[in-house]
Amino acid sequence: xxxxxxxxxxxxxxxxxxxxxxxxxxxxxxxxxxxxxxxxxxxxxxxxxxxxxxxxxxxxxxxxxxxxxxxxxxxxxxxxxxxxxxxx
Length: 88
Hints:
Beta-Lactamase; mainly alpha
């Protein structure tokens, strides 16, 4: 593969990733309902403005934190059980 072809592929890949990020961000921000993006480890990796308003947290207070932060204590154990089965 020539250097030029390789460079074009890298630019295309980068543009596609940017487009996906922009699309997802636009989708989340346009939603009226609260939406959270949670990683496989249960860490909050994204949220929309409606989620911040509903839960009363700023972005810096939610991103990187455990989803358990938002779940009432009495529901945490059942949630963790369901979560472990969900990701199997």
